[in-house]
Amino acid sequence: MDTEIKNSLKMLKQKEILLYPTDTVWGIGCDATSQEAVAKVFKIKQRSESKSLVILVDSIEMLKEYIPTVSKAVIEILANPKTPTTIIYDNPVGLAKNVVASDNTVAIRIVQHEFCKQLIHQFGKPLVSTSANISGKPTPNSFKEIEQSILDSVDYVVNLQREEVNEKSSTILKISENGEIIVLRN
Questions:
Q1: Is residue 2 within 8 Å of residue 8, measured between CB atoms?
Q2: What is the DSSP code (8-state) at residue 95?
Q3: Domain extent for 61
Q4: 134 burial via Cβ count (<10 Å: 0-12, 13-18, 19+)
Q5: Strands (E), 6-104
Q6: How are beta strands 18-20 and 156-157 bridged, if at all?
Q7: Window from 86-100, 130-144, 153-167 with minimum mean pLDDT
Q8: pTM, whole model, 2 decimals?
């Protein structure tokens, strides 16, 4: 795993695009603070930049760097996640403009996957994580299901967990303006 982290860090620092395993499905990712790198992800996905992307962080501490106001209720949810949990937050700071939705929200998950957690920790910045498919096509549940066009489009493919099948997606929650927690996907 150390070699894969080292190789991935080199790519991220050069604003390149990774294909990597996560705590849900395989993800296409990059430095979430680089508008240039994020634009490449949208191009690979053949997706409009008006759609937002999921961002991965390694801890509540890193989350607070990009979301200045995190409620106690959210921290309680994130302290003991039973499943991968993505939360849509208002008013992010410090992220590339093209990862933030037009309503000034962003979807962020504290990753539990060991490779991702170590990679993000060593990189010191959040990563984009979007499913490894062309927009509108089915999400691949394993490395073998990823289309060749995606494999050819990224700059580096992490050589871990290529035999595993992962059919779980994250729970998605939205925090309303009054602090109410709304379940968008369970």
A1: no
A2: S
A3: 2-185
A4: middle
A5: 18-20, 27-29, 54-57, 85-90
A6: parallel
A7: 153-167
A8: 0.92
Q: Note whether 46 and 28 are within 8 A (CB).
A: no
Digit-coded pLDDT (tens) for 7-55: 999 999 999 999 999 988 899 999 999 999 999 999 999 987 767 789 9
Q: Which amino acid is at 40?
A: K
Number of domains in the chain: 1
**Separation CA 51–CA 162 (nearest Å):** 28
What angle do helix axes 2-13 and 114-123 make, rounded to 10 degrees? 40
pLDDT at residue 62 is higher than 70:
yes
Specify whether the CB–CB gap between 173 and 182 falls below 8 A.
Answer: yes
CATH code of the domain containing 19: 3.90.870.10
